[in-house]
Design goal:
Helices cover about 25% and strands about 15% of the residues. It contains 10 helices and 18 strands. It has helices at about 20-30, 105, 125-135, 200-210, 235-245, 365-380, 390-405, 415-430, 455-470, 490-505; strands at about 10-15, 35-40, 140-145, 145-155, 165-170, 175-180, 185, 215, 230-235, 255, 280-285, 290, 295-300, 305, 310-315, 345, 350, 355. The strands form 5 sheets. A 5-stranded parallel sheet has the order 3-2-1-7-18, covered by helices on one side. Strands 8-15-9-10-11 form a 5-stranded parallel sheet, covered by helices on one side. The protein has a 3-stranded antiparallel sheet with strand order 4-5-6, with no helix packed on it. Helix 5 (about 235-245) links the parallel strand 9 and strand 10 (about 255). Helix 1 runs parallel beside helix 6 and helix 6 (about 365-380) runs parallel beside helix 8 (about 415-430). It starts with 10 loop residues before the first strand and ends with a helix.
């Protein structure tokens, strides 16, 4: 079901200069094929969400509840205390004490390790500097402080010609322009448009008690919650992290409302100690089924009511949101924002082969996945790889939907699927036509990542590695290697080999 069709692409637009967009820029540039590569980002510097914003402000577009993706460009905000001096920014979900929950030895781009001496789980500022450094090699391709307003298809999609018009606006000046491209890479991420479920009474509660309900996107530090009675809604990565931080200053216990119990093997839940005399600082409670405005309270699924609540922080995730693609048919954004329909291998639009998406999968290690995706896309666009047939792409998508259904699980590539995915894309990219006169590595081009046994071993264990680091408290920032936490792949492999030999001898 392979195809002998190849794409005819000369001008490529990349939307977003975060981790995914930078990966795309590197691999597209490495093809030495395209006359124009332009990477748009509405922020003043590359790095995407890792560009921390300290502002204590909320997007004017933010609503409570919030159950569908926005159909407008991202809101640019000013610091209320410095509205005249500071330029407008896009609020980042990065908070003061954020550190990665992935070891940097696994998180990094395959051609660039983190700086020597970096903590194994580096703080956000280290990641920001790492991305800024990587952006230097593609700086000539970046159009920063440029917001993408709309992407339009200019003619019926086809293999030989599929032109796109992109309307943009320069943020400081307000100047608008339209540029035409042959292909588009969407790399704007999916941690920007917050989701807040529509729970009975929530809208009335928010109207009666403005400012009590917020979302993790706008959290920066625990200080504002000092002495308060707090409910954190959600117990995934951000819920776990924020509840632990808030619990250091808030009334005890912080109530963590969850639909499902977290899986200890896939989360980085901090240890919460208690004694006979001191209650634990965090208590898990069922999901909220009703907000009670008159009592400033909530009712949980078990019937228990809590009143006089000071703060409710929703750590309920984000939508897949593409307001600049609103004119496309069929629609890219589904009403509930839970997934992106019509994508082959979570990347390529079945209906529009010159429209691709990076970073869609969930439960992955984003940087190397973006590299693996970018390597394949760059080779497709340069014509070194044939375009998969429409039938092949649709069959793949139908099988995925049959397995996972329609919804948020569609893009879940939790281990070991993410390892298999990276390596499958690697193998595809390595099959591209070689061009020794133009490309390095004997004409193969820029090499994509490949995860061998040691990477896969580390990937499987990184939640446990994170727990081991957290148990060290502040000393964890001095940990730079896995072995310092007792995770030694070579020792494990030698032991496993010895055990296998003993079993072989018995048989």
């Amino acid at each position: 079901m392979a195809s002998d069709r190849t794409l005819k692409v000369d001008r490529v637009a990349v939307i977003g200069a975060g981790a995914c967009g930078l990966a795309a820029a590197k691999y597209l540039k490495a093809e030495n094929k395209f006359s124009k590569i332009e990477v748009f980002d509405q922020r003043a510097t590359a790095g995407g969400l890792w560009n921390y914003t300290p502002l204590h402000v909320v997007d004017s577009d933010f609503t409570i509840p919030r159950t569908k993706p926005s159909d407008r460009p991202d809101t640019l905000v000013h610091d209320d205390n410095d509205a005249d001096a500071a330029p407008p920014v896009v609020v980042s979900p990065v908070y003061d004490q954020l550190e990665t929950n992935i070891p940097h030895t696994l998180m990094n781009y395959c051609d660039q390790p983190f700086p020597e001496g970096s903590a194994l789980f580096p703080p956000h500022v280290v990641v920001q500097k790492y991305l800024h450094k990587n952006a230097e090699n593609v700086s000539s391709l970046l159009s920063l402080e440029t917001q993408v307003l709309e992407v339009r298809r200019t003619k019926a999609a086809g293999v030989k010609s599929a032109a796109w018009e992109i309307d943009t606006q320069h943020v400081p000046s307000g100047t608008k322009r339209m540029t035409e491209f042959d292909a588009v890479v969407v790399a704007n991420g999916h941690y920007n448009d917050p989701f807040v479920p529509d729970i009975a009474g929530l809208a009335a509660f928010n109207e009666a008690h403005p400012g009590v309900v917020t979302h993790s996107k706008f959290y920066r530090r625990p200080d504002p919650f000092k002495g308060q009675k707090v409910i954190v809604v959600g117990n995934s990565a951000s819920g776990i992290d924020l509840s632990a931080q808030i619990a250091t200053v808030a009334q005890s216990p912080v109530l963590v409302s969850e639909k499902e119990k977290p899986n200890p093997s896939t989360t980085s839940t901090p240890a919460v100690a208690s004694t006979d005399d001191v209650p634990p600082p965090i208590r898990n409670v069922p999901e909220i089924v009703e907000f009670l405005p008159a009592q400033c309270g909530v009712r949980f699924a078990d019937g228990v009511v809590e009143t006089n609540i000071d703060a409710v922080v929703f750590c309920t995730g984000y939508f897949y949101s593409y307001p600049f693609l609103r004119s496309l048919e069929p629609h890219i954004t589904v009403p509930d924002g839970s997934h992106v329909p019509g994508l082959y291998d979570h990347i390529l639009s079945v209906h529009e082969p010159t429209l691709t998406f990076l970073g869609i999968p969930q439960r992955i290690v984003p940087f190397p996945v973006a590299e693996a995706q970018s390597a394949w896309v760059a080779r497709l666009f340069s014509g070194r790889l044939p375009l998969p047939s429409t039938e092949m792409m649709q069959n793949w998508l139908d099988e995925l939907i049959a397995e996972k259904g329609i919804g948020k699980q569609l893009h879940n590539l939790a281990f070991p699927r993410d390892v298999e995915y990276i390596n499958r894309l690697h193998d595809r990219s390595m099959q591209a036509a070689r061009n020794p006169d133009l490309l390095p590595n004997e004409g193969i081009g820029k090499l994509p990542p490949y995860w061998g046994p040691e990477k896969a071993w580390t990937r499987e264990r990184f939640p446990m590695i994170k727990l081991a680091a957290r148990a060290l408290g502040e000393k964890r920032f001095g940990i730079q290697k896995l072995e310092q936490l007792g995770f030694d792949y070579k020792a494990w492999a030698a032991s496993a080999e010895a055990d296998a030999s003993k079993e072989a001898e018995k048989s």
